[in-house]
Model the fold of this input.
Amino acid sequence: MSVRILALVGSLRAGSHNRQLAEAAVKHAPEGVEVVVFDGLAEVPFYNEDADVEGQVPAAGAKLREAAGSADAFLLFSPEYNGTMPAVLKNAIDWLSRPYGAGALTGKPVAVIGTAFGQYGGVWAQDDARKAAGIAGGVVLEDVKLSIPGSVTRFAELHPADDTEVVDGLVKTLASVAEKATPAAA
Done:
């Protein structure tokens, strides 16, 4: 039985290096690991408890929760926007944290990685995403980190899937996440 990892990408930009990093994770996932990139974070409305009523949950929020519910673990890809994670990623974590104590993140392994233009590869944003995911109920894998600096120059002509050092880091990350996950019964 394979481990299903849901990838949430915090950048909506066409050509995003974090999106490319997620694509590389899909391409190079080790045997027994399936990485699924969630498309649709741009459509998920800002979390509002008034809208989070059974039978009235916005379709995009329900779709996110459904995808997360079928995942064994999560891999969050975060660039750094003004020193923190993008709002779209924080919003996804907010949706997945509810209902309180029983959200789709609860009890499941979560790793946060990413790339950014700065010299530290977005570590502040990734630390914030780890904090939020842990408070939301996820089992944050604090020792699983991959922060790739200089994205604009590093990936100007090379896709992350073709960067040997990046692929090695991704494979190790995915193996660590999969090791902590328990595959859901099919």
